[in-house]
Amino acid sequence: MKRQVKRTILEQAKDWFESEKKVVLARVIQTWGSSPCPVGSYMIVNDKGEFSGAVSGGCVEANVIQECLDLIKNNNSFKQLEFKVADDNAWDVGLACGGEIKIYIEKINS
Amino acid sequence: MKLQIINEIIKKKSSNQKFALLTNLTNGNNEIFEFGKLLSNDFESYKKQIENYHSLKKNGIIDDTQIFIQNFTKPIEVIVVGAVHIAQYLVDLFKNLDFEITIVDPRKYFITQERFPNVKIINDWPEEIFKKLQTDSSNALITLTHDPKIDDPALKHALKNKFFYIGALGSKKTHTKRCQRLKESGFTEEEIASIHGPIGIKLGGKSGPEIALSIVSQLVLEFNKLLLNSKK
């Protein structure tokens, strides 16, 4: 059922890649304390800034998308990102829940 | 990550295989792991730890290494006996959960692809179907017909094969009679008590979607309890 109905995030990544979009895969590789998405959760981002999937409860997505767009522009193929609890600066990126997460982003290539 | 690896994952996932994706965080190399498969130099020296994490279905950076393992496990297969309207709501609710659903019913007019688009359906008696299907304790059974000649053989099969979840729709009175029949067939009280009947957690609702929700909630609850115990 699932395989016919639900197009998975990875299938979407494949479609984007095959329609000549540049794609980055972001995965949660480590968590400390309370964090909304467990290790192994993933999200994909393309060069237009479109995304699918999740790596947190909306806390760090905007920042991860920006990092993915930066990765597309530079020569590196992967990078590790770390996010800690938000400080008092209300608009700072961080995890309001008090957790910490490590995210690994990598380009999809042929 | 190479597109080839993405393709491989999509393919393996759609055929319900058990495998893991390994990533070397220092050089960015990725590789698919399966029991018995040879690994490249990037990962070979961590094989024992990789196998250990994979057996425990544990995702994460392997201790004292820069190897990240992400496991892909076989989804749980739920067999639903009775292609009634509650089954249609069950399909909707299971869609976003990691469960595979198969609907069986010997009554042809109930079990049509029009009523169940994109779902695996089998038009036969449960007794015949279970002779062909491979099942074990990773399966779940939901019976919805409350007709003994359709439900009972499925329940007996599930009890014998120790399905992790067995639920039977029907009133308290129907369930009492059902338990009596199973007792006469030689099942122990403990076995019979493992059947969730009347099925579902108490949500207080009587509509089809509400009953379906109460069934899915109960199954997910039992599944998570099992998962928690296996990690202790």
What this model shows, in words?
The complex is a heterodimer of chains A (110) and B (232). Chain A is of the alpha+beta class. Chain A has one domain. Chain A contains three helices and five strands, in the order H-H-E-E-E-H-E-E. In chain A, strands 3-2-1-5-4 form a five-stranded antiparallel beta sheet, with helices on both faces. Chain B is an alpha/beta fold and 232 residues long. Chain B folds into two domains: 70 residues, no CATH class; 156 residues, Rossmann fold. Chain B is 42% helix and 18% strand. Chain B is built from nine helices and nine strands. Chain B has a five-stranded parallel beta sheet with strand order 7-6-5-8-9, sandwiched between helices. In chain B, strands 2-1-4-3 form a four-stranded antiparallel beta sheet, with helices on both faces. In chain B, strand 8, helix 6 and strand 9 form a beta-alpha-beta unit. The longest helix of chain B is centred in the C-terminal third of the chain and has 24 residues. At the A-B interface, helix 1, helix 2, strand 1 and strand 5 of A face helix 1, strand 3 and strand 4 of B.
For the structure shown, list the relevant keywords:
heterodimer, A: 110 residues, alpha+beta, 5-stranded antiparallel sheet, 3 helices, globular, B: 232 residues, Rossmann fold, 2 domains, 4-stranded antiparallel sheet
